[in-house]
Amino acid sequence: MSAADRLTSARLLLVVVLWPVALSGAGVLVGLGLIAAGLTDALDGYLARRSGRHSVRGARLDGVADIALMLSAAVWLDLLHPLIAVENGPLLVVTAVLYVASSIAGVIAFRRLVDPGQVPAKVAGGLLYLFALFTLLPGVYEALLLDAALVALAVSSLETIFKATTTIHARATSSRIRSHAPQALKGLSRSTAAAASIATSAIPSASDTRP
Known about the structure:
By secondary structure, this protein is mainly alpha-helical. It has two domains: 1-80, no CATH class; 82-192, no CATH class. It is built from eight helices and no strands. It has helices spanning 3-23, 27-51, 56-80, 83-87, 89-110, 119-136, 143-202, 206-209. Helix 1 runs parallel beside helix 3 and helix 6 (119-136) packs antiparallel against helix 7. The longest helix has 60 residues, at 143-202. The protein is globular and about 65 Å long.
């Protein structure tokens, strides 16, 4: 396991450790834990680029860690600040449904949970991270920052769903073309053989031309 993968694994372990902290009501400690998690998220990518040890396993592990942290942080915020869910229930539900749908579509189409190069995803993640910190550390949430984060997450989810749908449709079309191609070639070979047979039978044999 590379150093980058160790940091990613540490982020997953930190999520597990922060759960009892959140259940105990220590919002400031959860906020500090999120800062530590954010540092591991930045450092594992830096180390992977610096060492040149990019891997599919590392990318998948990073995606799982990011989603586990984000979903856990959402639950922690709801536990520590129930007013957020009361005042923003419909928007939270719609965004959650879009996010789950985009995650499923991403796994089906791209074999990954998140697209690290997707700009709306980065913006949404950054805004959600800032919202969590500004809410947990001072203890008061900013409604405008939450709205901006949820809108960015919804846009990112819709973009992922659109890309995944386009990719799946393109694969299905390509598969249909490949499945029809052998039949077309077989039919062409049969017609060519038949034409050759007709042409051969049309040529008079030596016995036919003798007087």
